[in-house]
Amino acid sequence: MTIAIALTIAGSDSSAGAGIQADLKTFAALGVYGASAITALTAQNTTGVSGIHLVPADFVTAQIDAVFGDLDVKAVKIGMVAQLATIDAIAAGLTRWSPKHIVLDPVMVATSGDRLLAADAVEGLRTKLIPRAALITPNLPEAAALLDEPVAVSEAAIESQGKRLLAMGCSAVLIKGGHGQGAESIDYLVSGNGSIALSAPRIATRNTHGTGCSLSSAIAAGLARGEEMETAVRHAKTWISAAITAADRLGVGHGHGPIHHFHGFY
Questions:
Q1: What is the pTM of this model?
Q2: Which residues 6+ apart lie within 8 Å of 179 measured at CB?
Q3: For the residues of 102-143, what is the DSSP string, one character each?
Q4: How far is 148 from 171, CA to CA, in rounded Å?
């Protein structure tokens, strides 16, 4: 047997709840071999981000080329890109290596509220990375920020924003409803085939650190294993809901603790 391989291009979280560490845990939990290209080092824990050290763009390039030059990467997940020079390096790398599946999580703000993307890099995200993606996975505030619009509060407004994001050139958009209200957390998968509402019970916990990173990685893992997009999204949604449900069992940190990536094992 040859294991499916996925690459995450993202920032490092020193407390290991989000970012590269969460992505690699997700890949491992779902039976996929994970490789990484680190875009930034963050000094952070469950209470917030205290520092960001950007990795030079040429070294991001070196990491991407080293991985693709040796490993048979089936899917790529892109998370925190931090700055415009890094976006340019990633876009050039994707052009060189043409991976089949790209999942872009447009990380702009941490769970704690700390900004993770330079203001001048947002346009680069729109024009250089979104058009290359098979799927982008913004939450409600990120979708609004990408469109320079208020946060959508109705199903019709969410679907409308999804269609406008789709027009930026990606193949599909998953707008995550975790920041919404109500008993159900509803995500909307918008593609050329229409819109699908995917609901799950809203889980009462503060331990949601890394949820967005892990969901996009779970989708990338499914695509790497050969699943179709809708199937990969549905499986990832089921897995992430279980990981959030089990989060309180961990008791890590004093703020927004991590989800339980290995809930299926212990």
A1: 0.96
A2: 139, 140, 141, 151
A3: EEE----B-TTS-B-S-GGGHHHIIIIIGGG-SEE--BHHHH
A4: 21
Which residue among 8, 86, 211, 222 is the active-site one?
A: 211
Active-site residue (options: 17, 213, 222, 257): 213
Active-site annotation holds for 210: yes
The tokens 């346009």 sit on which residue?
123
Q: Which of 17, 208, 237, 257 is catalytic?
A: 208
- Residues 53-79 pLDDT 10s: 999 999 999 999 999 999 999 999 999
| CA distances in angstroms from 16 to 19, 48, 52, listed in the order given | 7, 13, 15
Distance CA 221, CA 227 (A): 9
Annotated catalytic residue 212: yes
Domain residue extents for the chain: 5-249
Is 208 an annotated catalytic residue? yes
Active site residue 213: yes
Amino acid at 216: S
Q: What is the DSSP string of 197-246?
A: EEEEEPP--S--BTHHHHHHHHHHHHHHTT--HHHHHHHHHHHHHHHHHT
178: amino acid identity, one letter = G
Distance CA 94, CA 129 (A): 9
155-199 pLDDT, tens digit per residue, is 899 999 999 999 999 999 999 986 666 778 899 999 999 999 998
**What is the model's pLDDT at position 107?**
86
According to the model, what pLDDT value does residue 204 have? 87
Architecture of domain 5-249: 3-Layer(aba) Sandwich (3.40)
